[in-house]
Amino acid sequence: MAGLPDGVRRAEMTGNRIRERRLARGMKQAALAEAVGISASYLNLIEHNRRNIGGKLLNALARALDVEPAALSEGADATLYDTLQAAARDTRSALGGVTPEAERIDELAARFPGWTGLIAAQHKRISGLEAVAEGLRDRLGHDPALAEAMHEVLSSVAAIRSTADILAREPDLDAAWRGRFHRNLHEEAERLSLRATSILAHFEAPESEGPGPSSTPIETVEALFEAAGHHFPEIEAHGADGIAGVVERAAGMEDAASRALAHEMLARYAQDAARLPLDVIQPAAREAGFDPGRMLRLGQGDVALVLRRLASLPPEAGVPDYGLAVCDAAGALLFRRRLASFSIPRFGPGCPLWPLYAVLARPGHPEAARLSLPQGGVFDTWSVAQPVAQTGFGRAPVMQATMLIAPAVPEDGAAAIPAGPGCQLCPRDACLARR
Prior knowledge:
It is a single chain. This protein is α+β, with helices and mostly antiparallel strands. It has a six-stranded mixed beta sheet with strand order 2-1-5-4-3-6. Among the domains are: 6-123, lambda repressor-like DNA-binding domains (434 Repressor (Amino-terminal Domain), Orthogonal Bundle); 143-204; 316-435, 2-Layer Sandwich (Beta-Lactamase), CATH 3.30.450. The relative contact order is 0.06. It is built from 18 helices and six strands. InterPro entries: Cro/C1-type_HTH, Lambda_DNA-bd_dom_sf, ScfR_C, TransReg_Diox_bact_type. It comes from Roseicyclus elongatus DSM 19469. Keywords: DNA-binding.
């Protein structure tokens, strides 16, 4: 039964659910059999999945057990089932030796519905907190506004400490100088208070401004793309004419800079969709097994176009969970599609070992590489550097590098480059490329 699809396997477990529900209610097998008008031996065969039931008998058993018939025939609610499957998978990867019995989820849900709901709710809560923690960790390491504010706070702390040290060590200080030092202490303390308050406000955006602490235009636009799953059906169908509607409905677009950046990025999306329409890239991706190396001809020489379009595919069965990073020739990240377990900094460069940077030295030469992260995740990457603008004859073009990322499934043992999320967050202290 383990090799069957989930839907078939769960349908064949009706007997298990009847038995678990009966035991949960403290009923004897004979009592339940008598209540529905069958023999105890026949009920025993049902509970061991040796007899298929349906219709009148299933309804009778459901009434006797005080449960909906669907709960016996279909088991746990599909959403609950998927959540518990995800919890089991995440637990295995996070705790190593712990191996939950994922094949017995329906039994758990039938016997302990309250605990099952609690586990599912806690998993959702943990996943949400992990996402928040990842975002805050990223921001602490790469937010330039926060870095400047922290620099000012530390400067004020140093000034206060220096002034207080002078006052403590010089008891015979001239009264005029002592008054000046006291005034400095007061002014630096006020500045410290204001800077600390500004840092707090930086993280505590009002609820009306959206779910996250977005403050810069790039953060606001990234939130727009994340909310849409990086796929915009309106633009796919109507091209650039659909951009205004997308921006109008997006949160946080009151700022002129955010609106301008959103229009710029969505215009590029519209151009990509026009050059490589969804009805072309989607079937080609399925046929190629979502392997970018087998799809390069679709871009007619523009490899980055293929990588961006793969990252904008609508979510459906079989489509990998893609991440995307785009940087300029200086290594600054211009755009990203975040991927679970693969941290892409919001500001500043990522890991120096990423192929995203290596391909800048070989423009036009696409490269495929596998990366292993410190937490144990393994990812396949496809990268290319290409000119995006020409500055004139005899002058170097404006270059950008693009890297598509996907979890390596299955992990076939191929050699992987030990990399990280960027030096500020990476625990690989012995890395020769570490800044």
